[in-house]
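Thread: sanity check for a docking pose with adenosine-5'-diphosphate

Original post by kr_44:
Hi all, I'm comparing my docking run against an independent structure prediction. Below are the sequence and the ligand SMILES. Could someone generate the full complex and paste the structure tokens? I mainly care about where the ligand ends up relative to the chain.
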Amino acid sequence: MAIIRTFDLTKKFGEFTAVDHLNLSIEEGEIFGLLGPNGAGKTTTLLMLTTVIKPTEGTAYVGEYDITKEPDKARRLVGMAFQEPKLMWVMTPWDVLNWHAKVCGLSSSERKQRVKWALTELGLWEDRHKSVHTFSGGMRKRVEVAKILIQRPKIAIVDEPTTQIDIVGKHRIWNMIRALRDEGSTIILATNELYEADILSDRVAIMHRGKLLVCDSPKKLKDSIVGGDLIELVLEKEAAENTVEELKKIEKVVDVLAIKPNHLRIYLNHAEEVLPQITELFMKARLPIRSIRMSEPSLDDVFAHYTGLTIEEAEKQ
Ligand SMILES: Nc1ncnc2c1ncn2[C@@H]1O[C@H](COP(=O)(O)OP(=O)(O)O)[C@@H](O)[C@H]1O
Ligand SMILES: [Mg+2]
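Reply from moderator J.T.:
Ran it for you. Here is the predicted complex with adenosine-5'-diphosphate included:
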């Protein structure tokens, strides 16, 4: 069942359209990735869903509440870890999180237990009484993410939760986001990191210039690129012309390129299913294979497929 639905959700800043007639449906209990380059309109979308800013046009339902008509009720279902946390400079993580837990209505025993757990898990326990102005960007980000983990809202929105955080910290946060989902929260994750969107999301919506390009599971998005998978084969000896022709006849093989007489590139779909057929063909032709390399497209290839740009190029524009 959809827990969030947007209907032509639009936000203009003056003449500029930051979010352009967005139609999304987010299922209860999923991790929904919103992927796009900087400036795509991700944060603006999330701020409308959390009723921090008002849409110029269109609307969204959060649960059963229309954000333009019953913003207070809609807001109660969501918790958000902001991209640029506005933490009070004089406060310590201990104060910030205890205060947040109190505002969210946690009992004092829950508060004690969850604040300690989040601080420990995020590696902030030792620094809990230091004022946040001494913190690095990554540490401040962790305090912001801790808020949502303590709150456990029905809908948890995390806006670029792992920027400026090292790889160990990233994995820790990813695991905690998964755990939060397993506890029953629906997660909306905005990110410009392909890997993060890919490994964490059940479904990904790709945004570019305020518009939705596509929305599906990472696997389906990648599979939707015809001939997007690649199998590279190096043979012990030259492949005969008819072997290449045989290869091309295999279902799901889109193209075969001989970059050297004994080095073939096979563009195809569902490479993992077709590989046995391919190796069998070489066995029958008595052509020993020296090496096999298999790769599938990334979400960057998906983005490029729809925009003609890599995400990196899009960010430069
Ligand atoms: N308050 C604002 N006033 C004017 N322009 C804004 C404002 N907030 C965002 N924008 C513009 O809207 C576009 C989308 O921004 P944003 O939603 O932050 O993108 P993302 O989160 O995908 O990086 C950007 O071009 C940004 O400069
Ligand atoms: Mg943003």
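Residues 42-43, 83, 159, 190 surround magnesium ion (ligand 2) (CB under 6 Å). Hope that helps with the comparison, let us know if your pose agrees.
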